[in-house]
Amino acid sequence: TLSNVGLEQFYGIEIDEAAVHIARVAMYITDHQLNLEAANKFGKTRATVPLVTTPHIHYSNALKIDWNDVVKAEECSYVFGNPPFIGSKIMSQFQRNQIVREFDNSKGCGVLDYVSGWYLKAAKYIQHTTIKAAFVSTNSIVQGEQTSILWGQMINKYGIKIHFAHRTFKWSNEAKGNAAVHCVIVGFGVDNPNNKTIYEYEDIQGLPLAVPAK
Known about the structure:
The chain is of the alpha/beta class. It has helices at 17-42, 93-102, 116-125, 145-157; strands spanning 11-14, 56-59, 78-81, 132-138, 161-171, 181-189, 196-200, 209-213. The strands form 2 sheets. The chain has a 6-stranded mixed beta sheet with strand order 3-4-6-5-7-8, with helices on one face. Strands 1-2 form a two-stranded parallel ribbon. β1, α1 and β2 form a beta-alpha-beta unit. The longest helix has 26 residues, at 17-42. The radius of gyration is 19 Å and the shape is globular.
């Protein structure tokens, strides 16, 4: 067997209907490109045409639906994503209400950025599993007043352990008019591995240095 990973194993949630279709096509293309790369390395690969499998990209609001309706937690291995970067001061009332509801109207949750909802939703989803989760986020969720509110719940209420973290780095893509933002990545789960890592950036636009951490 050349690969134990197939497109049908990928599940996603996307709020923009056009992006749902783009995501499916992008995954077909990536699958084909990597199969060609495998053929160059190993001399053979599996056929990618005709298309017989498909990724499960759902058109929905990720904070509104139950993720178990997309894929059961006991059937999931990893959760990862790049949730919307919307600061608490520029969120719509609908978005703020979503966060307040996700945090059960707990004290101070009104100051949290929109991305915090994905962290808490993931924390709830991965309970009693071995799922590993990670999100790219604006660095505000690990600074100032948001830290104790978000991570207080993540750690104290849901028993989350941080497995790895990237300190602040500068992220941008090639989209027209895309602004560079300062990001972090936090990886976590309910298990507590012995080996944890912090990725330090001497240059926020450069490559990280992996540092063992407790």
